[in-house]
Design brief:
With about 450 residues, this protein is α/β, with parallel strands linked by helices. It is built from 17 helices and 18 strands. The longest helix has 17 residues.
C-alpha cells in the first residue's frame, strides 16, 4: 500500500520507519493519516453542472489568452501564471471586479456583517472553524434574523475544525430555517481516516454579488480577544464582481457534496454591477483535484520572480520544490523576505518551521519573526506583478491534503495595498540572524529534529 499510494519518497521512507518502529500503532496511523484520498470514490461526488460551465470558460480563455490585452500582463510571467491556473485549476480570470483588502478580524467582520444585513436573496457560508463564543454568536443571531426575513441561508463547517461547536448552536440555526451541514462528518474522529482530509476553505457569498475569502475563521481569537494570543494578525479579501461567480461555484460544489442538493440557477450568478477593473483568478485545490493547483502556482510565482518575493505564512514547512525555489531565488539575487510567527499555535508544525530556517538563511533568504502577537496571514507578493491571498498555508497539509481556495491578484493597486501591510508587519518583526541562529541550544535542535521527522507525515 505504501509503495503504491505514495509518490513522495521522503514520506514513503517516513511511513516505513513508523511501521518498523511501532508496527501495530503505525498501521492504524497509516490508515488514518497516510492513505491517498484519490483512491476514494468520494471525490467523484464533488461535481456540479456549474463546474462544467466554469471549466468551459477556462478552456476558452486558455486558447485566447495570448491574444487578449489585459492590464498588468505585459510581462510574460503573469500570462504564464494565468495560463497555468486556467489549465490546472480550471480557474477563469475575470476583469470586472472590485477588490478590498481587509486587514485583521475587526475589519473583516464589520464588512461581512454589514453585507449580511443587506442580503435579500441568499447567504452562503463555508468555514473551517466556527466557535460558540461572542463573535460566533453574533454571526448566529444575524443569520437567524435573516432567515426569519425569508433570506435563504446555507452554512457549512468542517466537522473536525469545528469539533467544539455544540448541538445547541447548530439546532438554534436549524430551528430558524438555516440549512446547516458539516463537511466530512466524523462521529469518532480517532477511528476515521476522513479525519485527515479537511475543508480548510473560508468562503462567504451574499446574493451572488459579494464574496469574502482569506485566512479568518469565526472565533474570538480572530478579533484579538483570547487568552492565548494578545493580537491576531490576519488578511481577508472582499470581492465584488465576476470573481464572485468562482467563489459561488466552489461553495455550491461543496454544498452538493455535503447536502446532496444540486443548487443552481441564474439567481446565484446575477449581473455584475461594479465598474471597477481588477484582474482576479480564484483557484481551488484539494485531494479531489487532478493537479496540486495552488502548489504549482506558488512554484510558478517563485520561479518567475526577478526582483522580490515577499511571503507571509504561519507555517514554514514548504514542499521540496518550493524550498528549492526560495533558496535558488535568494542565491540569484532576488529579495526574498518571509514573515512567520514568533510563537506557536500548533507544536509540531512550529518546530518543523524552525527546522527550515537555517538552510534558508544560509541561501540568503531574510526571515522575520512577528512579535506583535500571532500572524496567520497567507500572502505571497512577487515583483508587484502578482500576489495571492487565501486559505493555503505553506505546508504539506495545505498543498496536498486539505481543500483550499486562493485568490490570485494582478491589480497593481491591490498588490501595492498588500505591500503596505507587509512593510508594517516587518516593523513589528525581528530578523533572524544566521550567526545567532547557529548557536541555538541542543534542546531547540532536538525539537526541530522531531518537527522535521513528523512533517512528511502530515
Amino acid at each position: 500500500m505504501i509503495f503504491l499510494e505514495n509518490d513522495n519518497p521522503s514520506r514513503t521512507v517516513a511511513w516505513l520507519l513508523v511501521l518498523v518502529l511501532i508496527p501495530v500503532v503505525g498501521f492504524f496511523l497509516y490508515v488514518l493519516f497516510g492513505r491517498s484520498y484519490r483512491k476514494q470514490k468520494k471525490a467523484e461526488a464533488k461535481i456540479l453542472s456549474d463546474s462544467d460551465r466554469m471549466s468551459h470558460a477556462a478552456e476558452v480563455q486558455a486558447s485566447l489568452l495570448e491574444y487578449i490585452e489585459l492590464p498588468n500582463t505585459e510581462n510574460p510571467a503573469n500570462r504564464r501564471l494565468m495560463q497555468l491556473l486556467l489549465n490546472n485549476a480550471k480557474a477563469p480570470f475575470s476583469m470586472t471586479n472590485e477588490v478590498t483588502v481587509l486587514t485583521n478580524g475587526l475589519s473583516k467582520f464589520n464588512r461581512l456583517f454589514g453585507a449580511i444585513r443587506r442580503a435579500t436573496d441568499h447567504i452562503h457560508l463555508e468555514y473551517f472553524i466556527i466557535k460558540d463564543d461572542r463573535i460566533g454568536n453574533e454571526l448566529r443571531e444575524l443569520l437567524i434574523e435573516k432567515a426569519n426575513e425569508g433570506v435563504k441561508v446555507r452554512l457549512m463547517f468542517d466537522d473536525v475544525g469545528s469539533l467544539t461547536l455544540g448541538k445547541a448552536y447548530i439546532n438554534s440555526l436549524k430551528d430558524a430555517g438555516v440549512e446547516v451541514y458539516s463537511f466530512f462528518k466524523v462521529p469518532l474522529p480517532i477511528f476515521s481516516r476522513d479525519l485527515n482530509y479537511r475543508n480548510h476553505r473560508k468562503i462567504v457569498v451574499i446574493d451572488g454579488v459579494i464574496g469574502f475569502v482569506g485566512g479568518l475563521n469565526v472565533g474570538d481569537e480572530y478579533i484579538s480577544n483570547s487568552d492565548k494570543f494578545e493580537f491576531w494578525r490576519d488578511t481577508h479579501l472582499e470581492i465584488k464582481g465576476e470573481a464572485v461567480y468562482a467563489l459561488q461555484t466552489i461553495f455550491l460544489n461543496d454544498w452538493n457534496y455535503v447536502a446532496g442538493q444540486m443548487v443552481q440557477g441564474a439567481i446565484y450568478y446575477p449581473e455584475v454591477n461594479t465598474t471597477k477593473n481588477s484582474l482576479v483568478q480564484i483557484a481551488a485545490s484539494g485531494p479531489d483535484s487532478d493537479w496540486k493547483c495552488i502548489l504549482q502556482a506558488y512554484y510558478k510565482m517563485i520561479a518567475n520572480a526577478v526582483d522580490k518575493i515577499w511571503l507571509t505564512t504561519p507555517y514554514l514547512v514548504p514542499e521540496e520544490s518550493i524550498m528549492m525555489g526560495l533558496k535558488a531565488a535568494a542565491l540569484s539575487g532576488v529579495d526574498v523576505k518571509i514573515i512567520i510567527p514568533s510563537q506557536p499555535d500548533h507544536f509540531f508544525v512550529y518546530w518543523a518551521s524552525q527546522a527550515n530556517i537555517q538552510q534558508l538563511l544560509e541561501a540568503g533568504v531574510k526571515i522575520y519573526r512577528y512579535k506583535n502577537g500571532f500572524i496567520h496571514s497567507k500572502i505571497m507578493i512577487v515583483d508587484r506583478l502578482a500576489a495571492t491571498v487565501g486559505t493555503a498555508n505553506l505546508d504539506i497539509r495545505s498543498m496536498e491534503i486539505n481543500f483550499e481556495v486562493n485568490a490570485f491578484l494582478y491589480d497593481v493597486d491591490v498588490i501595492h495595498r498588500l505591500e503596505e501591510d507587509f512593510v508594517k508587519d516587518l516593523e513589528e518583526s525581528v530578523a533572524y540572524e544566521l550567526d545567532t541562529y547557529k548557536e541555538r541550544g541542543l534542546h531547540r535542535k532536538f525539537l526541530e529534529a522531531m518537527g522535521r521527522l513528523v512533517s512528511p507525515l502530515q
